[in-house]
Amino acid sequence: MEIKGFKFSAVEAAIKKPGRLDLALIFSEVPAAVAGVYTTNKVKAAPVLVDMARTKYGLCQAIVVNSGNANACTGGQGMDDALTTTRLVAEGLGIPDEATLVASTGVIGVPMPMERLRPRIPALIEGLEGGTLEDVAEAIMTTDTFPKLAIRSGEAGGKRYTLAGVAKGAGMIMPNMATMLAFLVTDAAVDPAWLQRVFREGVDLSFNMISVDGDTSTNDTALVMANGAAGNQPLTAGDPDAERFVRLLRGLLLSLAKQIVRDGEGATKFVEINVRGARSNAEARQAAMAVANSCLVKTAFFGQDANWGRILAAVGYSGANIDPYRVELSFDDVRMVRNGIFAGGDAEARGTEVLKKREFSVTVNLWMGEGEATVFTSDLSYDYVKINADYRT
Q1: CB 194 within 8 Å of CB 48
Q2: What percentage of the chain has pLDDT greater than the value 70?
Q3: Which of 149, 142, 152 is nearest to 178 (CA)?
Q4: CATH 3.10.20.340 describes domain 270-389
Q5: H/E/C letters for each residue in the chain?
Q6: pLDDT at residue 38 above 60?
Q7: What CA–CA distance (Å, rounded) separates 239 from 241?
Q8: Nearest to 212 by CA among 249, 259, 251
Q9: What pLDDT, on a 0 to 100 scale, did the predictor assign at position 175?
C-alpha cells in the first residue's frame, strides 16, 4: 500500500510495560491540510488541547502518538511533556514545531514517563524508512484485541489517490466521540476548510454513531491529513470529484467505527440498532442511542434473551415522541412486536435464534414520520467487567 508522500514508524518505548510497540509516528514529506475532531469531555488531556490549538491553522506535517499513558489530568507537567514531545520530533524531522501534533491514550492521571519516551524518538524517526501504517495501527492499541485499518482509492482530475486510516478503541466508547484515536491520511489535494467540514460530518455519521459502554473519554482525537502528492487540483465543495471523495471518506470512517464496536471489550455480539419512522432524524438517533446504551438491553443480548420489552422501555424513556400503540420491533426479519403488542410464542423462539448469532439487527419503527438513524453497539459481558476492573494493573 502506497500513500504518496507519507511515511510511518513505530517503536517500543515501554511506556506502560515492555514487550510491544507503543510509540508511533505519521510523517508527511510536505505540509498537509489537516482537520480534527475532538472529545467534548470538559476534562481534556494535554495532547487534545495542543492539537485543538494547532489544527486551527489547517496545516501540519507530523503526528506522534503513544499508547499506555493518556497524559490526562497531569497538570502543567503534562502540558510540558506534550510540548516537549512535539518539539523533539519536529527537531528530528527538521520541520516547524507547530506543524507537529501529538496524541496519547492509556491510563489517566499518571505522569508521562519521559525518561523512557524521550530516548526512543531518534529510533522512531529512523524507522520512517521501513515502517508501515499497519505498525502505527498496532502501536496505538490499548485493550484492543486487533489493529484496525481501512483503505480506499479514488480518482480526481484524472489523478489516482489513496485514502487510508487506522483507529484504536474497544472500551469507553460513546459518541462525542469515545476513548478512541483515529488517524487518516490521503495523498489527494483537499481544501483545508472544506476538509474540516466534511470530516466533521463523516465523524458524526460514524464514530458518533457507535456505543460500547456509554462512556466518553478525555483523549478522543480523530485527525485527517491530505498532502496533495497525488497531483490533483484541491478538492472542494461543488466539484463532482469532491463528492466521490466524501463517499469514500464516509465509507472508510464507518468501516473503522464498526471495527471498534466489533472489538468492544468483552463483546460477543455486534448489533445494528435501526430506528425508523421517527418525527425527525434527531429523534430517531435519541431512540437508537437509548437502546444501544441500555445495560439491561445489552445484557439481554449477551444472554441471548429476546427481551423486547427492555428495548421498548428504552425507546420510551429516550425523549423521542412515540405512540406505544403503533410501534413495531423486529430482530433481523423476525417481527416481535406489532402495534405495540407481542407477536407471540413462535416469534419468541425465532427471535431467540436470531440473538444466538454473532451479528444481528434490531429494527424499531415508530410510524411517526420519516426520521431514521442507525447506531452500532455490542453486548455487555462478564469479561467487560474483568477487563475494566484490572485495567490499571
Answers
A1: no
A2: 92
A3: 142
A4: yes
A5: CCCCCEEEEEECCCCCCCCCCCEEEEEEEEEEEEEEEECCCCCCCHHHHHHHHHHHHCEEEEEEEEEEECCCCCHHHHHHHHHHHHHHHHHHHCCCHHHEEEEEEEECCCCCCHHHHHHHHHHHHHHHHCCCHHHHHHHCCCCCCCCEEEEEEEEECCEEEEEEEEEECCCCECCCCECCEEEEEECCCECHHHHHHHHHHHHHCCHHHEECCCCCCCCCEEEEEECCCCCCCCECCCCHHHHHHHHHHHHHHHHHHHHHHHCCCCCCCEEEEEEEEECCHHHHHHHHHHHHHCHHHHHHHHCCCCCHHHHHHHHHHCCCCCCCCCCEEEECCEEEEECCEECCHHHHHHHHHHHCCCEEEEEEECCCCCEEEEEEEECCCHHHHHHHHCCCC
A6: yes
A7: 5
A8: 259
A9: 44
| Partners of 195 in the β-ladder | none
Mean pLDDT to the nearest integer, 220-237: 96
Residues 6+ apart with CB under 8 A from 133: 1, 3, 8, 26, 149, 164, 166, 185
Q: Cell 427481551 appears where?
A: 307
- Where in the chain are the domains? 6-262, 270-389
Beta bridge partners of 274: 363, 374
37 beta partners:
222
Residues with catalytic annotation? 179
Please count the residues of the chain: 393
Tracing cell 497531569 back to the chain, one arrives at 74
Average pLDDT, stretch 25-31?
Answer: 98
Separation in Å, CA 148 to CA 27, 97, 172, 256, 274: 19, 29, 17, 6, 24
Poorest-pLDDT segment among 22-36, 83-97, 301-315, 373-387: 373-387
Name residue, grid cell 444481528.
360
Q: Is the pLDDT of residue 218 over 90?
A: no
Domain 6-262, CATH number (from 3.60.70.12, 2.30.40.10, 1.10.10.10, 3.40.50.300): 3.60.70.12
